Description:
Layout: E1 19-28, H1 35-46, E2 50-59, E3 67-75, H2 79-85, E4 89-90, E5 96-97, E6 99-101, H3 102-105, E7 114-124, E8 134-138, H4 142-147, E9 153-160, E10 173-177, E11 185-188, E12 192-198, E13 207-208, E14 214-215
Antiparallel strand pairs: 1-3, 1-7, 2-3, 4-5, 6-7, 8-9, 8-12, 9-10, 10-11, 13-14
Amino acid sequence: MTHDDLSGRGGQPVPLAPYRLVWLALWAEATPQEEAELTEHLRTALAPHGTVVVHARGPFHRTPEMLHYEIDLTPDGSAPDCMRALGFTRNADSTWNDEWERPVNGGVFLHPAVFGALAGEMEAAAAPRFRTGDVVLVRDSPDTRRLGLAGAEVTVGTPEYDYNTAPARRTWYYSVLVEGQDESENVDETDMEPTGRHQQVYGERTSVSTNGVLAS
């Protein structure tokens, strides 16, 4: 079964995952004075698909003539169905063709001012407990002992799950950034304990030593 196949054994529909999210990043050719009006338009345009939260981020730092928006959409149905309804398609390798750009694709995406968009989707049994940059304590388990990480403090990278697991049963694991290692390691969410600390992680590798000092 592919990760967006909604029919199970015997043709029975696969239950919807309790946690479903379609995220969007938009860049619009508009002025700060138009931000509130455009925010409301985007919220209204996406409302038929589910519950929408629109974050207006103001002028984008790389292209200040464009406004930047980040949108969290909890779809009424499955997240893959919502992605398709928004016009995104699958590539041959089952990844999403998740970019839209007006000069390349033509037409309008949600509003004539939108110049470009990125999108993605997630479905799991529950929302991820941690976000990128959280500093966590790795619990002692056979897996973490094998990795040599039991008792270490690490910085959370990207949340992931097994796409071959039914959406409603998926649980999270994370790539984690480890001091002194160029490569990240994968740790199950159940093997991670929050410390209440957070580090800003952008493109560069960042880690935290056992005494809480930021290392580069």
